[in-house]
Here is the input.
Amino acid sequence: MENTKDTTMEKVVSLAKRRGFIFQGSEIYGGLAGAWDYGPLGVTLKNNIKRAWWRMFVEERDDMYGLDAAILMNEKVWEASGHTGAGFTDPLVECEKCHKRYREDHLESTEKCPECGGKLGEKKDFNLMFETKVGAQGNAKSYLRPETAQGIFVNFKNVVDTMRPKLPFGIAQIGKAFRNEIAPREFLFRTREFEQMEIEYFVYENDWEHFFEEWRIRIWNWIDVLGLSHERVREVDVVGNDLAHYSKKTIDFEYDFPGKGFDELSGLAYRTAHDLESHIKGSGQRLVYTDAEGKTTVPHVIEPSFGLDRAVMAVLTQSYTEDNLGKDTRVFLKLPKDLAPVKVAVFPLMKNKPELVAKAREVYEEVKKIIPNSMFDDNGNVGKRYRRQDEIGTPWCVTVDFDTLEDNTVTLRNRDTGEQERIALSALIAELH
Ligand SMILES: [Zn+2]
Here is the structure.
């Protein structure tokens, strides 16, 4: 009896904290707004998502090139891209009495402070980039990048010159970006520091609609890799003021977080040739593609982008399951096996029998050779160990008992059904292979 409709964000967040997936940033000092740390299981889950993404979008394809650009970039990059201008700002208002600051478009009244009722001052454009100084003299200004995309555009020529790709082709990057949000939201939904997985896919102008459709299907394939149910994901056409001035078409993919509503998971944008044209103007360099006949063109761009922290939240939410296995409610994470931070847990049936512990250790070493993300656990009784592994989404538990000493068989337990089967150790090792 699964009752995923009873899943609430509170339950997911509580499990994520309790079991070492996500901690408040700088917690022992009272935290820092909009900053969260990934704990031992969270970082593994996140790395597994990144690895799956890189495999699917870079390694398994012949038209994709990886990149890892620096977070700090020449300030001219952000002038050319328009980020230092009015386009990358939030409307900020300050209360004249208590000096609290608000995002104007989040307020119900733009006249009165919601805290103290004081008069609100004039609206100011607040730039979202984190400014920093470079070097001991501190006279070169730089920014923590607010998006990973520009690192790709400024390396366009380097990739073309060194890899000689044929159009269409793409450049992919995973990395951190920073935005000084006025109002960071709860948990991982809007943080000041976040990780993006982004692709800039370069095409001939006439082909953009075709490739836009292709990438749309691929984003759905990725949603399947994350194990998200299609009923909880929707596409939203971005229109009007929300559509960036350079984009001719943008679709957001949103996930329905229980009790919270739809929130962005991924985006797909047709950015025309806007970015390369801007950097041609800004740098004076020829950022062009030359075909076999020697004809040059400034490629147009399809941009599929994915928020990694959002993906982690969606995967945790989708996986969170309660059922009635045994006498009480069981909480478990039905994580896709590829993404589970721990794949196999190995236990001795009892921890006070040295011969069982020794045999279990031996089995564990064998398993770990094949699946490094395995865990040995001899705390508490077997029932409690199962529950602990269920809560972190471990797909398989292996128990070593007295029969193992006689006939080399073990008990293999399935996370989702709770069913146990007796299996020869050699068969288990073969299956894990
Ligand atoms: Zn006030």
In short: The chain has twelve helices and 23 strands. The longest helix spans residues 40-59. Residues 342-432 form a domain with the Rossmann fold fold (CATH 3.40.50.800). The chain has three domains: 4-77+129-317, 85-127, 342-432.
